[in-house]
Amino acid sequence: MAVDSLWHHQFRIVMLGDSTVGKSSLLKRYAEGVFLDSMDQTVGVDFYVHFVEIEPNLRIKLQFWDTAGQERFRSVTRSYYRNSAGGVLVFDLTNRASFENIKNWHQDVIDTVKPQPVVFLLIGHKSDLEAERKVGQKEAEKLANSLSAKYIETSAKSNRNVKEAFQTLTLGIYESLKSGKMWPDEHWDGIKSKRPLITQPEVPAQGKTNKCWC
Questions:
Q1: Which candidate, 52, 80, 82, places its Cα nearest to that of 66?
Q2: Which of 4, 46, 99, 144 shows the smallest number of beta carbons within 10 Å?
Q3: What is the DSSP letter of 114?
Q4: pLDDT score at 111
Q5: Which InterPro entries match (predicted)?
Q6: Which residues on adjacent β-strands are paired with residue 101?
Q7: 20 sits in which H/E element
Q8: pLDDT (tens digit, 9 = 90+) per residue, 112-163?
Q9: CA torsion through residues 21, 24, 27, 32, sign
C-alpha cells in the first residue's frame, strides 16, 4: 500500500511571514530533518508533506504551503489562504520589523474569503541567536494572545522546539475538528478525512466558555 494512502486526516497549513525569517528552514528541518546554512528565497510557493501519528493508529498527513515573503508574490500566495486549516506566523527574533509585520500577515488571512476559521500558531524563530534578540518573550506572548494563537520559540539550526511547534498546531487543528469548529467539506481543501468523527457539538452561546489556542 502506498505511503500516501496511509492517513486518516489531511491538514493543509500555510507558512506566513516576512522574507528571510526562516520559514523554509523550519519546514526543511521538520519535514526532512536537514538544516542548511544558506537557502534560496522562496519564489511564489513551495510545497512540503509530512506524516505524523498524534494518537495510536491516528495518522495525519500535513501539507505545507511555504509562501514567499516578498510583497510582489502576495497576489499568488493569497490564493492558498482560503484552503488552509492552519497558519504558522513566523518572525525572526533578531528582526524587530518582522515581528511588527505579523499583525499584517494575520489580518491578510482573516480578510481573505474563507468558509472556515484558521488555527494560528506564532513562532519566534532563530532562538539560537539569543545575543541578537530584539523581541522579548513576554511581548511575543502578548501578541499571540491577541491573535488567539499559541506562541513558541524555535531554531531550525539547533532543532529547538521545531517538532513541538508543528505538533502544537496539528493538535490544535485536530481539536477544532473534533469539536465541530472545523469540518471536512468537498468544496474546501483545508481538511480531508477518511475516518468518520464523532464531533462534540458547540455549546450554546449563553453557556459557552471561551477557549483559544493562546
A1: 80
A2: 4
A3: -
A4: 87
A5: P-loop_NTPase, Rab_GTPases_membrane_traffic, Small_GTP-bd, Small_GTPase
A6: none
A7: none
A8: 867 788 999 999 999 999 999 999 999 999 999 999 999 999 999 999 999 9
A9: negative
Query: How far is Cα 170 from Cα 180, in angstroms, rounded to an integer?
Result: 16
> What's the pTM?
0.84
In CATH, the number for domain 3-207 is 3.40.50.300
CA separation for the pair 94, 96 (Å, rounded): 6
Within the chain, residue ranges assigned H as helices are 23-32, 74-77, 96-100, 102-111, 137-146, 162-179
As given in the structure block, the three cell numbers for residue 26 are 523550519
Compute CA 14 distance to the chain's CA centroid, rounded to the nearest angstrom.
Answer: 6
Average pLDDT by consecutive 10-residue portion of the chain (214 residues)? 74 92 92 77 70 92 79 60 92 98 93 84 97 98 97 97 97 95 90 72 46 41
CA separation for the pair 103, 100 (Å, rounded): 7
- Residue 107 has which C-alpha cell? 489580518
Q: How far apart are the C-alpha atoms of 67 and 47, rounded to whole Å?
A: 9
Grid coordinates representing 95 are 528582526
Cell digits for 30? 521538520
Task: Pull the grid cell for residue 115.
Answer: 468558509
Residue 96, C-alpha cell as written in the block: 524587530
